[in-house]
Amino acid sequence: MLTVRRSVLDLATITQGSDAAAALRHSLDLARHAERWGYFRYWLAEHHNMPGIASAATVIVIAHVAGGTSTIRVGAGGIMLPNHAPLVVAEQFGTLESLFPGRIDLGLGRAPGTDPLTARALRRTLASDPDAFPQDVLELMSYFNAPPADVGTAGTVRAVPGGGLKIPIFILGSSLFGAQVAAALGLPYAFASHFAAPLMLRAIEVYREHFRPSADHAQPYLMLGVNIVAADTDDEARFLATSGRQSFANLRRGMPTTLPPPSREFERDGAPFGAIPLHEVQSISIVGSPDTVRQGLETFIEQTRPDEIIVAAHIYDHAARLRSYEIVAGLEHPAPHSGDDRN
Description:
Elements: E1 5-10, H1 20-37, E2 41-44, H2 58-67, E3 73-80, H3 86-99, E4 104-109, H4 116-122, H5 133-145, E5 169-173, H6 176-185, E6 189-191, H7 200-210, E7 222-230, H8 234-240, H9 242-252, E8 285-288, H10 290-304, E9 308-312, H11 318-329
């Protein structure tokens, strides 16, 4: 039974022949549909120097989406913390939470979300080290945990706004490191199984076995990323999925591009999800008709037992992308959520 929460992961994809302005309009349109279809949250990801991704200024795009919706949770999946001073992140998300109370999430990642040259350009004024990620997370949390004050105190650094606000923090990861950090801090954990599945099962085990209850989380909370391309028929879904396949191949060659239109030359019959052992797949991807997607998701959920899945869909045509998310939303839909549910 597909009773886990379902959410949306959006990269504000720029398609071939289009531009960032259109991508951002499409993101808001998808978010409005997702809210109506009952998705629990809508996350945007920080990437830089990527021709096909318009969400580099992630906080601004979150405000754009949150301002155009009313109940769905909106957040970052994630903010790449080594690129930012923790105080700045606390102030930015404190501002978002003040504007859209009870609806903002903050997912934190350790990777730069870009190539090494761009990473150096992003961090040129920062003294932080990516390996200091756990300390940066703790510093960021301390700004939120500090009580708000009417009068500043000399020698005290406060996030204004930010102090005293309850903003859910998730640790993102594609390896065992993020699982260890999330478990040690008693935070929810989101694993990037949509692009880095080989370590997923071990990361889940590490997170659950070593989770230490915290003031806000008595139990572990696991979110897993899933690529889903759904259409009315298996053949149509396989054709639509060729856009993402081309884009991923270009990225692997070190030549990131805008998202290309689907191509019959890249079409192939893939093995049904579950035909290959879960520990051998490179990414969690389910492509097909509603029945095919349902079967794949049931297999995946049964084997991993997540609290939530977050769905990415690399589809060139906006109407087809909307239809894909509509199909996923309609698969034995879970109970509707309340906008103030923070986990």
